[in-house]
Each structure stands twice: as C-alpha cells, then as structure tokens.
Amino acid sequence: MTYRAPVAEIAFTLKHAAGVGRAIEDGLYGDLTEDLVDAVIAEAGKFASDVIAPLNRVGDQHGTPFRDGAVTMPPGWKRAYRDWAAAGWNGLAASTEWGGQGLPHALNAACIEMWNSASMAFGLGPFLTMGGVEALAHHGSDDLKRTYLPKLVSGEWMGTMQLTEPQAGSDVGALRARAERAGDGTYRITGQKIFITYGEHDLTDNIVHFVLARLPDAPAGTKGISLFVVPKFLVNADGTLGARNDARCHSIEHKLGIHASPTCTMVYGDAGGAVGYLLGEENRGMNCMFTMMNNARLAVGVQGVGIAERALQQALAYARERRQGRHAGAGGSAPIIAHADVRRTLMTMRALTRAARTICYATAGAIDRSHRADDKDERRRALERASLLTPVAKAFSTDIGVEVASLGVQVHGGMGFIEETGAAQHLRDARIAPIYEGTNGIQAIDLVARKLPLSDGAAVKAYLDELRETVVAVAAVNDPALGHTAARLAEAVECLDRATAWLLGRLEKEPDAALAGATPYLKLFGTAAGGVMLAGEALAAIRASGSDPAGRMAIARFFAENLAVQASGLERTVVEGADSVAEAEAALA
Ligand SMILES: Cc1cc2nc3c(=O)[nH]c(=O)nc-3n(C[C@H](O)[C@H](O)[C@H](O)COP(=O)(O)OP(=O)(O)OC[C@H]3O[C@@H](n4cnc5c(N)ncnc54)[C@H](O)[C@@H]3O)c2cc1C
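# flavin-adenine dinucleotide complex -> structure
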C-alpha cells in the first residue's frame, strides 16, 4: 500500500487550524490566495505520492552503504532529490532575496508533512537545510549569506546541524569540540560529533555543516558555545568549489529505522583543523542554534503527523480487505473494519493524527504571524504563542506518530510484524522522532519550566481563554451529532487550567515536584488543545460548504468522548503523582 497525500484535509486544516485563511484576509501574505494555497498543496501531494513514496521501501532495504569515507544513497534517491529541489520545494518558505519563494511557514509545514509521509528518511535532510537557511539569514554576515544562502535555498547544497558529542547529548553545554581563532577572521575547528544526520552523502556536491564548538577562552556551559559554518568543500571567491576541508565522516550508524538517512560520526581537524566561519557572535552560538532548532522541532513534530497519516492509510486499506469472523449483516466472513474493536482502533488513529496536525499547523501559523503582523504587540503575542506550542507540537505529535504506527501494526495482526506489509517500517521509522531534536522529556521540561512562565503566565492563560471560547461556541451549536463533545472538552480544559496553576505555583519552590509531572502535563496540554481544535474544525466545516461537516463532527465527538476524557487522569498524575516519583528511588534500587 503506497501513500496518497490527503490534500483536501491538509488544505482545510491549514486554512482553519493554522489560520492561513484569516491571515490571507488580514493581508499578512501579500497577494497569496486560497486558490494558490490549494494549488501548491496539490502539486506537493502529487510529488510526494508519485515520486518520493515509491522510494521509501527501497531506502529502508538498501540503506546508505559507507565506503572509504563516502556514503552512497539508495537507488533513485539522487534523481528524486534533484527533481524535488529543481521544482523549488526546498526554498518554499525562504526569502525571495535569496531565491526562495517567500511563502508561509504554515504552507511549508503542510508540505513537510507530505514529504515525511512519503518517506521520513527523505524528508529529514531538507528540513535541517531549511533550519540552516533560517540561522544564516538571521545571524550571518553579508559575506556568508552571499556565499551560502542561494545554494542552500535552492537545495543545490544541503546543510547539517551539529550539536551532539558522546558526552554531550541533552546536555549541550558539555560539548568539547574546539575552535581556535586563525588570525584572519576564520577559525580552525577540531573535535568529534556523533549522530549527525546527512553528515555525508552523494545527493549534493557540497555539504554545509553548522557546527557548535568552544573557543579556548570561552566560559563554561552553554554560555561559552559558538556556532560555525564549516563547508565540506571550501568555496572560492567566484562561488566554485575549492579544496576539501579538514572535515570527514568517520563511520555511519546501523539503526532501528530511517535506514536511508545516513547518521554520521564526523571528525574535524585530522590535518590541523577544519576552516570554520563564525555565525553570529562568539559565545552566542546557542542563540543562533535555537533559530535552527525551533524550526527543526516543529518539523520533527510534523514528521510525527506524517508517519501517523501514512500508517493510518495503510491500516485502513488493510482493514477493508482482510476478512475474518462474522458480523451481523455480512454474509460469510466480514472485512475486519466491520468489527467494533477494529473501528475503534482506526478512529483512534484518525483522531490522534488529525489532532496532532491541527497543533503543528497552528504552531506554524503563529510563527508566520510573529514575522508578518503589522502590529508590534501582535507579533510579540504570536511569538509567545509559537514558543508555547512548539514543545507540544514536537512531543505530542511524535508520541502520536509512534502510537498510531504501533496501532497500525496491530490492525494488521501477524502480518503487521512481517516486514513485507510495510507497517513495521512505519513503526521503526516513527521511533526516532520522540528522541532527536531534544527528547520529548526535554520538550516537556521546556514547556513547564520556560514556556508556562512566559509573561508571568499570561501567554498560557490567553491560550486557555481561547480554548474556552471555542468550547462555548461548540456548546451553542447544540447539534445532537456532537453528543457530549462540549461537556467533555470543557472538563478537559478545566483539568489543564488546574494543572497549569498547580505547576506555576510549584516551579520556584519545588522544581523537582513540578518537573516530575512535566511529561503527563504535556500530554494533557496536547489532549485538551487537540480536542478543542478538532471541535473548532467541525464548527468551521458547518460554516463552509463542501467540507464534510458530518465527518468532522464525528471525529471531534470521538476525540472528546474517548480521548479527551483522559484529561482528568493526567491532571491527577501531574498533581498527585509527584510524591510517588520522589519516593521512587528505593523502588529503583
Ligand atoms: C538517528 C539520529 C539522528 C540524529 N541527528 C542528529 C543531528 O543531525 N545533529 C545532532 O546534533 N544530533 C543528532 N542526534 C542526536 C540526538 O539529538 C540526541 O540523541 C538526543 O538529543 C538525546 O541525546 P542522547 O542520545 O545523548 O541522550 P541523553 O541526553 O543521554 O538522554 C537519555 C535520557 O535521559 C533523559 N534526560 C537527559 N537529560 C535530562 C534532564 N536534564 N532532565 C530530564 N531527563 C533527562 C532524556 O530525555 C532521555 O530519555 C541524532 C540522533 C539519532 C539517534
């Protein structure tokens, strides 16, 4: 079963959840129209379904052989990447000043979903390049921008993002890679990086590494980290490629999933030091890296949506075909989709996937508003909204990617465990997304410790108020098709409100108690927000013609009555569970 991009669904969510429709009305996107949005999504969907999706299995089976320092990408990948870049997809959201198309980040997020549904290993490389483009555009000198941006925007070169070292994973401040001033304005980089995605490959002629390293006189921890642009091949003044830099791939990892994404150990300075160019200011590298990372975190969340969508499509197709058992009304054996338990599983998969999509697209929409709104205060509020939602988008959606892919295996029964069906690959691929780009545990800590206190709690309060407004509107519709949707969502939002107040009250005095509840809190946040946003989509569908109001009301109701009801348990876990975590030491001895 291959992938067909759900273009109508994606367009609807983009216009309503991400607020692209309203942003177009407000004039935020210049002369962009809803028709153009539809056309871009349709074209991306075609490319993802027809060109990339068929390469997913090949990539999984073939992997990326490594020999003599070089990585060979799977058959068909180079051609597909070049066609993809030539069609302008890499620079969709990049500035027109550097050859991009200047289109909304929200639209790019929708395309990223489709690239990653088609193949997570394919979609991963380009969004790291896009993160590099953002960092360069914001923090680079004119010279660096002129040299690297046009080719990174066009996709002629790809970028990497290099933080991790053996002793420095979540604790980035522990990194040891060194940068020495060369005296001519450039730097010499030495050290080792591990787990570097697309650190070496043959898709492009040059690879631009964004490397974190420490100057000899730098303060300890994250305040002493600088970011450097380190190209695989140095670039001559006329833009042609020069000498090979002193940076090489030492080996690649053998992994559970995303086999076609080369994960490299990189070594710098075998011959005295790789030439590096400072991005931003010395010792302020984490600032620049956060520009890359925030983008990449949302994109990883979108990967969760993408893999969930693919697993759902495959499970639905299988459930319509596979016949087992009897069911009232069906003569002979029934397709397994007729059985209530299988239908519940499929509905859970669909409802979770759509909830994650609404959250990710809404985050991307907030990012756009934070860049493009005329009013300064509106830009600030939108930035806070994006900051608040980014850890939720990343962690909630990638957990959903794993859960939905696992349910997809279950729908296949024994065949799900057999590689031929492809269901197992989705689960293997999905498993990395809760780990990289900051583990989901770290995202939960970020949400609780840094995002809830934004503007003294006003940012999260404003969000809760908006959720309540939607719930009131759902109640006012009073349509029997919505069942108990409004009541269950109102309860979920109140659970989130109480858990938020509890955490904010403890953060300073009892930080361990607060952080013990961070992961269940993030799930509570995603559950309440996702449920309300699905109900908001149902309301939008009632107003708009031809947008499947009955189907959307059914999904919103299912989510509210079957999944949002978990909110009260999650609230209890946050508020009452901290003590048992504190006392768990003895149990783990
Ligand atoms: C396939 C793959 C691709 C990757 N690509 C890249 C890349 O391109 N560039 C790059 O720089 N890195 C990359 N990484 C590295 C990835 O980002 C790290 O693996 C990740 O950040 C976690 O670091 P770690 O593996 O050292 O785990 P650790 O930091 O050792 O964490 C182990 C566990 O402890 C928890 N933990 C750690 N610290 C804390 C804390 N303070 N509080 C609470 N819990 C904590 C974590 O949540 C996790 O569950 C990649 C990794 C993989 C596997």
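# post-check
DSSP finds 20 helices and twelve strands in the chain.
The CA atoms of residues 7 and 41 lie 6 Å apart.
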